Each structure stands twice: as C-alpha cells, then as structure tokens.
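Figure 2 data, in text form.
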Amino acid sequence: MKRSTLTALLIALMLAALALPILAQQARIQQPQAPLAGAAEIDDDDDDEERIELQAAPAAIQAAIQRIVGNNMIVEITREREDGVTEYEVEFMTVAGPQSASLSEAGDLLELEQEVTADALPAAVRQKLAQGFAGASIQEAELVQKVFYEIELTEAGRTREIKIDAAGRLMDDDDDDDDR
C-alpha cells in the first residue's frame, strides 16, 4: 500500500474516532422513548410514574444522566413521585448489558442496577440459592448498589447512627424508639 494511501486511511480513522462520541451522544439524546411493543404502563395508587424526554428533565437531572450514561444509549427515562419524593430513573445499554440509575430530584445518585448472569453471582449467593431454592431457576439477577449516608449523631448525651439517602429519606436509625 502506498504511503499516501496509508496516511489518508489513518486520517480517516482518526476523524471517525473523534466523530463517534459526538454521533453517539446525538443518537442517545434523540433516542425515541416510545413504549416497547406489548409493554403495559403500571398504574399503582402509590406511584405517579411518567416517561419523559431527556430535554424535559431539570438541568441537574440532565447533567447527572449525561455523567452516568456517558456515550451509552438511553433506553428510557422516567419520573416518579412516591411518598412525596420525586425520583428519576434512567435505563441505558452498556457493553456489559442493561443498567439503570435512580436519581434524586437534585441529581444525586440513589441507586445503580446492572443485570448479571447467574455465573457472575458470588459463590456465597449461588450457595444460598442452591440450599434454599434448589428447585428454582433464575429468571433475572441484578447487582444493586444503593447510595446512602451513614451519620453518627450525638443528641442529649447519647450517640446514635442513622442512614439517609440523597433524597432525604431515613433508611435506618439505630434508635428504634424514635419515630422521626
């Protein structure tokens, strides 16, 4: 191959590599978010969930989604209000498979979920499944990472530990007698 042909080929490859992230981002942002065929909307009295476009989300949510999703393709974005708290969930596809992230109204990460294969489950999980659920077959498995803050407080001379998520929900309080 001639040197000029090789140079032209290298330049074309470099330009394509530079353009791919931009094209991927445009495709991700313009991804239609119509319901999947056969998908039913779940209407629960406790939930008020709706699909939204990325552009319709608040700026903090857009920034968080772009930071978390990167160049991966967005499948769906939903906004849900439950127990007076608004959360956003983005489902997206990665090389490793489907993932989702739940965000507070301020754009703080609450939870990450990633589908995993049965073989990827830790040995202790597989052992527990074999012992307690021997006849069952795994339909789906997810690695779930919840984000919360563990805070040690001193109040009226006693110390206690609480856990609060980024949406402000009390997740755990080592003082069971106190209903805050």
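Caption note: Helices lie at 3-29, 59-69, 123-132.
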